[in-house]
Design goal:
It holds the Pfam family IU_nuc_hydro. With 372 residues, the chain is of the alpha/beta class. 33% of the residues lie in helices and 16% in strands. The longest helix is centred in the first third of the chain and has 14 residues, at 39-52. The chain starts with a helix and ends in an 8-residue tail after the last helix.
C-alpha cells in the first residue's frame, strides 16, 4: 500500500479518528527514551499508578535511543516496571537504536557550525554499550524477573494500533524513530491512531540542545519531520510550556522527604536531589530548580484542562543534516505552499499548581501497585 494514498485517505478520515467509545480506561502506548527517575522514569511511575486506579491502560512501553542508548534504556524500563510491581502487566519492547539519518558526524558538524545550546547530546555523549556488561545498574539493581519482549517495538506499535483501531493514544516522549519506522513499514495504521501527544519541539522559544532545537526532535529530525506531517490528531507539549513549569525545593521535599517513604521516593531523592555534579541539587541548594518535561504529557492526556493556554497552528521540523538549525520546530498560522502540514494543538501554558498536586500524589503513592 502506497504511503501517499494512505495519507490522503487519513486526511478524509481524520475527523472520525477519535475513540469509538468513552467506556473504560484510555489505551496508551508510551514511546520513550527511558531512564530510571528523570522525566521518562517519573512518567512511567505515574502511568503505573494511574493504571492501578483504572484511569489508563498502558498497553506497553516502546523504548528508543535518545537520553541513553537503547540497551541502557530498556534495562532501566524493565527495572522500573518490576520495581512498581507492573512487570507482568506493562510489557517493555526494544525499538530503534539509531536515528534514521542523524549520525555522529552530522552532530559534530552542527556543533562546529555554531549550533549553540546547552550541549546536551544524550546518548551521543557516551559509547554504545556492546553487551549487558557495559550497562549501568539503577541504584537498586537490574531487573531480575522482568524480561524484554521478543517482538520489536516497531512491530508492537503496528500490531497494537491495528488491534485497537482509533483507540490508542501514543505518548511520544522521546525521539520519534520508532513511530516513523512503524508508519514507513505499515502506513495503513495512520488513520487507526487515535492521537499522538508529544513532549518535543521548541515552537516559539529557544531550543535547549541547540539554540534552535529541543532535544527529542533534534536527536532524530528526519523522524520528527515525518511524524508531525502525518494526518493524525496531534498535541505538542514543547519547551514553550515546559520552560515555565519548574520543580522547586518545596515540591521536591514533598516527594523526597515524604512522610511514608517508598522505593520511588528514595530513588527520587537519590537521583534528583544532588544535581548533575553531586553538589548543586535540591539537598544542598534551596534555590535550585529543575525542569519538568515529559510528565506534562500524561497530565494533558488525563485532562486537557491542565493546559491553560494553547495555540492551534501548523508545525514542521527542519531536517538538514549538518545544519545548525537541524531539528528546529517551526509553527505557522498558514502553512507554506507545497508542504502538507497538519494543524495541531501547541500547549504554551499549564496550570502549574494543579499539575504539581497530581505529580506529588502519583510519585508518593504506595508501591508496588496492584494493576487493574
Amino acid at each position: 500500500m502506497k504511503l501517499g494514498w494512505v495519507l490522503a485517505l487519513c486526511a478524509a478520515l481524520l475527523a472520525g479518528c477519535g475513540n469509538d467509545s468513552d467506556d473504560g480506561p484510555m489505551k496508551v502506548i508510551i514511546d520513550s527514551d527511558y531512564n530510571t527517575m528523570s522525566d521518562d522514569g517519573q512518567l512511567g511511575v505515574m502511568a503505573a499508578q494511574l493504571q492501578a486506579q483504572g484511569r489508563i491502560q498502558v498497553l506497553g512501553i516502546s523504548v528508543v535511543s535518545g537520553n541513553q542508548w537503547l540497551r541502557q534504556g530498556v534495562a532501566d524500563a524493565l527495572k522500573s516496571m518490576e520495581r512498581m510491581g507492573a512487570g507482568a502487566r506493562i510489557p517493555v519492547y526494544a525499538g530503534e537504536n539509531m536515528p534514521l539519518n542523524h549520525d555522529y558526524a552530522a552532530v559534530q558538524a552542527e556543533q562546529a557550525a555554531g549550533a549553540g545550546g546547552d550541549g546536551y547530546l544524550g546518548a551521543w555523549s557516551s559509547p554504545q554499550p556492546q553487551s549487558d556488561a557495559d550497562l549501568v545498574a539503577p541504584p537498586d539493581g537490574f531487573a531480575t524477573s522482568t524480561q524484554v519482549q521478543a517482538k520489536s517495538a516497531v512491530d508492537f506499535i503496528v500490531d497494537t494500533v491495528k488491534a485497537n483501531p482509533r483507540e490508542v493514544t501514543i505518548l511520544a516522549i522521546g525521539p520519534l524513530t520508532n513511530i516513523a519506522k512503524a508508519v514507513q513499514r505499515n502506513p495503513e495504521i495512520v488513520p487507526l491512531i487515535k492521537q499522538i501527544i508529544y513532549m518535543g519541539g521548541a515552537v516559539h522559544v529557544a531550543g535547549n540542545t541547540t539554540r534552535t532545537a529541543e532535544f527529542n526532535w533534534w536527536f532524530d529530525p528526519d523522524a520528527a519531520q515525518q511524524v508531525v506531517r502525518l494526518p493524525i490528531k496531534q498535541v505538542v507539549v514543547p519547551l514553550d510550556v515546559t520552560d515555565t513549569v519548574l520543580l522547586t525545593k518545596p515540591i521536591y521535599d514533598r516527594i523526597a522527604h515524604a512522610a511514608q517513604p517508598t522505593a520511588i521516593t528514595r530513588l527520587f531523592q537519590q537521583l534528583n536531589g544532588y544535581g548533575f555534579s553531586g553538589n548543586n541539587g535540591f539537598e544542598n541548594n534551596p534555590e535550585y530548580t529543575q525542569n519538568i518535561w515529559d510528565t506534562l504529557v500524561l497530565a494533558y492526556l488525563l485532562d486537557p484542562g491542565y493546559a491553560t493556554q494553547t495555540r492551534e497552528e501548523y508545525v514542521d521540523v527542519i531536517a538538514r543534516n549538518g545544519d545548525p538549525e537541524n531539528g528546529r520546530s517551526v509553527g505557522y498560522d498558514t502553512p507554506p505552499a507545497g508542504v502538507a502540514l497538519q494543524k495541531m494543538t501547541v500547549v504554551t501554558r499549564f496550570d502549574n499548581a494543579r499539575f504539581f498536586e497530581l505529580y506529588v500524589d502519583l510519585l508518593t503513592r504506595p508501591v508496588p501497585v496492584t494493576l487493574k
